[in-house]
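Record 1 of the preview.
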Amino acid sequence: MRVLRTVPNVPSRDLSQSRRFYGETLGYCVVMDLGWIVTFASPTDPAAQVSVISREPSGLHPNVSVEVDDVDAAHAEMRRQGVEVVYPLRDEPWGVRRFFVRDPGGTVVNVVMHR
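->
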């Protein structure tokens, strides 16, 4: 399993205000908008990203997303190591396969792969 990208997931009570802050104030471009999550990327470095989440369909709020090249292998390795899986491995309707784990400090991590 290779890590392809890591993106912080910032909670938002008002996506329109967050959109103005990250888009207009900081100069990021919207690269994904599902209505409940908006991902912004730097126009000069597309790998520099931040996601803003108003609600998470799983009911949990992952603090960070880690995109990997093989989510099934990542899931198997996490389970082998006894890492706490807090959201099961599944295919989501918006085109990703993902699961959530809790790191030793309690942070929820979304491990994800685009299908």
